[in-house]
Design goal:
Elements (H helix, E strand, L loop, with lengths): L1 H5 L4 H10 L4 H8 L4 H15 L5 H11 L4 H9 L7
Helix pairs in contact: 2-3, 4-5, 5-6
Length: 87
Amino acid sequence: MIVTCLSEHSRNRKAGKLIGEGKSLEEAKKEVGMVIESIDNIEVAYQLAKLHTIDMPIVETVYQVIYENLSPEQAVKNLMTRDKKSE
């Protein structure tokens, strides 16, 4: 887990940085050139949350950045300004 988050050699980290810099999912996949597990996993987590009616705002927001072209800046704003509730 630590290597995935911190290593410059991590495919997941590299893909996240590229998407955060404004590259599309396809551009990030092409530049990484290998399987990016986190991309597949976020889609599955998002679908499972919807199927079971589980509120997962971080998963939903990351999904929107990757698959629905929500800007990373707007994603952070949405998460940081959402209504507070017991979680």
